[in-house]
Specification:
This protein is α/β, with parallel strands linked by helices. The chain has 11 helices and 12 strands. Helix 4 packs parallel to helix 5 and helix 6 runs parallel beside helix 8. The longest helix has 22 residues.
Length: 321
């Protein structure tokens, strides 16, 4: 049965992939940027405008009765630190506004919210074992981006409990894409290494060799969203979920890349303004809840991700462009 779906951030890579995945349904897209050319014929309507424009959002909800909302649009971590007031307006106020419209519409509308491992605030990573962090641990974010994500999670759970909005959220780790260039995110040092190696360019990492975070590939992220949103209501008990595919340090990533690109030139020069962000996030997370409640399973290990996804798609992408 066809559903009416709203996707904010529809022009981004996840938005573009979701439009392709959900193209059998009636999709309304919203973004500040134009839709990718592959998406234009797959949407029922597209609005080019700001998420914080309340009149625009009201007009959209007055015209359509949605079954699902995928709220992907947000201000990312680096820019949030530079403009915290804007971060709150875009990441928090717009989310609350969308949830309010879903509450008014009623009917238990499904609402997907992409959260982040930025909600965690770790103690000194050199002390003790703080791997496999659970969803309920270390919820003390040190960045405005992490604060906005954690607050929206809490608001989403409140709207689910009190107003019946079917709020579902994934705390994404670093996401590695072979198709789009990194855009300055805090975890972008790993994908930047791969893109530079394929293009035979020198790369200087803004974090030190020991920096370690959990990661996954972009196709896995999109598949996880789809799987979570298709899960039966009675399986969604926790609403907020960690997922991950592998965890690796910056040095291990360099070593992996050198095994495929022996001439790759990767150096390390820690930038204190960005290093502390990475140091505040966990080395790895525990994703048992997602596995137990809605059957999440990663597709790749680090080796299979490199061999089957990253290298062939990076080479193909750069050859075509």
């Amino acid at each position: 049965m066809s559903k009416n779906i709203l996707i904010t951030g529809a022009s981004g890579e996840i938005g573009t992939a979701l439009i392709n995945s959900l193209s059998d349904h009636s999709i309304v897209g919203l973004d500040l940027s134009d839709l990718h050319k592959s998406s234009s014929k797959k949407v029922m309507n597209f609005y080019k405008g700001s998420l914080v424009n309340k009149e625009l959002i009201s007009n959209i909800f007055s015209k359509y009765k949605f079954d699902e909302v995928y709220h992907l649009a947000a201000l990312l971590s680096s820019k949030c630190e530079k403009e915290p007031e804007l971060a709150h307006d875009v990441n928090v106020n717009s989310t609350v506004n969308l949830l309010t419209h879903c509450k008014i519409q009623g009917d238990g509308i499904k609402f997907f919210f992409p959260s982040s491992i930025a909600v965690y605030g770790m103690p000194d990573k050199s002390v003790g074992n703080i791997n496999s962090v659970l969803e309920t641990e270390f919820l003390d974010p040190v960045t405005i981006y992490g604060c906005t994500k954690l607050y929206c999670e809490m608001i989403g759970k409140y709207y689910a409990k009190v107003f019946g909005v079917d709020f579902r959220s994934i705390r994404f780790p670093g996401i590695i894409s072979a198709l789009t260039l990194p855009t300055g995110g805090t975890s972008d040092y790993i994908p930047e290494m791969f893109h530079s190696a394929v293009n035979n360019r020198r790369y200087v990492s803004f974090v030190n060799e020991s920096s370690q975070l959990p990661f996954m590939t972009m196709p896995e992220a999109v598949d996880a969203i789809d799987k979570l949103m298709q899960a039966p209501d009675d399986k969604i008990l926790s609403r907020i979920y960690n997922i991950r595919s592998f965890s690796l340090s910056a040095l291990r990533c360099k070593e992996k890349i050198l095994s495929y690109f022996p001439k790759a030139n990767i150096q390390f020069s820690s930038n204190s303004e960005r290093q502390w962000l990475v140091d505040s996030w966990p080395n790895d997370v525990n994703d048992d809840l997602a596995k137990e409640e809605w059957g999440w399973a990663s597709t790749y290990t680090i080796d299979s991700a490199i061999e089957q996804y990253l290298i062939p798609n990076l080479k193909k992408n750069y050859q075509e462009n």
